[in-house]
Amino acid sequence: MALEITDGNFQELVVGSDKPVVLDFWAPWCGPCRMIAPYVAEMAVEFEGKAVVGKVNVDNNPEISGMFGIRNIPTVLFIKNGKMADKQVGVCAKQILVSKLNALL
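^ thats the sequence. predicted structure below, dont judge the formating
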């Protein structure tokens, strides 16, 4: 299961991570977000121990969303060494997300 990333635990779980991080920016009212949610959940299991996979509710965590300039959701960010390395905006195939993460491993 993907971790819930919040304004409160962002530094510890994302910036402090020695593994690549996948952040899914979403909201409960967002239909397209629900379309990629299963992909993110599957990736959390498939990449356990190799990467951190988390979800950021944009309504509840404006600090993180503002930090990355999130304007559209779903947006999936790929972070390595505390810095954004890649991103995907909008719905896409799971394989696109997997290949972007594999590139950081």
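Residues 3-102 form a domain with the Glutaredoxin fold (CATH 3.40.30.10).
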